[in-house]
Amino acid sequence: MTTLTAAKNPAPSKNMPITKSPFALTKLLATIGPASESEAVLTRLIEAGVTLFRINFSHGTLEDAERRLNAIRTVAEGLNVPIAIIGDLTGPKIRVGLVPDPGITVDAGDEVEIHATSGYSRADGDRVMLTCTYPHIAAEVDTGHRVLINDGAIRMLAVDSNGGALICRVTTGGRITSNKGINLPDSDLSVPALTEKDWNCAEWGVRHKLDFLALSFVRSARDVIQLRDRLAHLCTPERCGMDLGVDDPAYIIPVIAKIETPQAVANIENILQQTDAIMVARGDLGVEMDLARVPVIQKRLVQAAHDFGKPCIVATQMLESMIEQPYPTRAEVSDVANAILDGADCVMLSGETAVGKYPVLAADTVRRVALATEEELRQHPQSERPPAKLRESRERVAALAHGAWHIARDVDAKIIVVWSQNGATARHLSRNNFQVPVVAFTTDPSATRRMNLLYGVVPILVDAIPTHRSDFAEMADRTVLQAGLVKRGDPIVLLGGKPLGQPGTTNTVALRYAGELSPGKVLADDNPDNTL
Q1: Residue 224: what are its φ and ψ, rounded to 5°?
Q2: Of 13, 164, 206, 318, which has fewest CB within 10 angstroms of its CB?
Q3: How far lies 21's CA from each of 2, 49, 240, 367, in Å?
Q4: Of 177, 89, 153, 96, which is closest to residue 291 (Cα–Cα)?
Q5: CA gap 343, 188 in Å, rounded
Q6: What is the 8-class DSSP label of residue 462?
Q7: Range list of β-strands (E), 437-482
Q8: Using CA atoms, how far apart are residues 348 and 319, in angstroms rounded to an integer?
């Protein structure tokens, strides 16, 4: 692992989070679990390229979450790298109740009664009685609607309701065990997006200064607004830091909307207007919708996120076979590469790192696939891809980022450097399809961690804001040379604003050449307020 330090004058860097050389522009999110919660494994995962960790509140207690959170932070501090932590809220997942071991097997043609009660499920003669966690299942699921259990492995059709029970006929059988998920893709449910458990976890996340919260089973923009409104009341600058917004950044934990329902796909534009990022959660999405449509929907969702200038994570079963095997299938490798080619900012590993036998190998596999894919992208002429919605809105920072893309292309810049106090300008640069690193300086520790979600962005935390933009240019020149990101004479595109450190003030683009502000050189700063 390589940890580098920026120039000591005027603003020394606290960290330079380049964990492995070469490093991938695509970010890697790993789920922490029993297989990865030790400090030794966490260290190796970070060295393999992981920049974000996911704590899944669906599994374990808040005490487990706190233990894992502390382990991540201890390792990150020891390695002197910023690591972001995402709290994944459970959402209104409907589940089967308790089932006696070893489970209940149903066959095609069997009838199953589903009761919204507690207690054990049972097989009673020719009919199976299942308990479930959703009290309105009999009232809100109509005849002919699909009822899917265990990610669709067991499939049924609703044929009738009998008082408080839903009667179903099995079309695809299998073994039902305790707490397996129930999906109702055809039904319009009144279940809220956030349960009481989710509110408790969100409050825990604020108290423990999580970097992001992921909202499960989003159906409309209202779900995101509801969470953000609650967070706005809970958050303080000390607990939450600023979001990735430009015009009016707020002190709040950024929200990642998980797109895993047909309703969310249909409402994606309204959701993107309210959320900070999205996750293409292909597990439940592939159950709720026709599996054959998921690849095309993935491409549509990634493009929609790009149009709105929002980061996008592609998740679920990326390297599923590596839970048990030390190598992936060819199809899985292609899946990771295609997510990157689609334009994903980040690829997520779930069971591979949470419970798999080879968590570090899985992370390193993603990194190597990303490196190969990004190298291929650099071999082809790059076309401009400014975010469509931001271009229509004529946002100043979006326009400046687009202009920087043209400059970088014309001079074959090796790196982009920006002062991005809360990560907003870095986010805009990331959206413009630079195939070189975007080095973003800030004095805000939370922004440093949150920028880890952005494609190509290398966040650097410094102790103090330079007095003039020319001071920033000198510091940046020294830092990227020391990091080995450029060689002397390489073109660099720099962006900054007046005053540095104030969100929304980026208004200047400059072209520099690495080494021209070398250590010891006296700067001719005749106009420091208007020169980078």
Answers
A1: -65, -45
A2: 164
A3: 8, 9, 32, 11
A4: 153
A5: 32
A6: B
A7: 438-442, 457-461
A8: 10
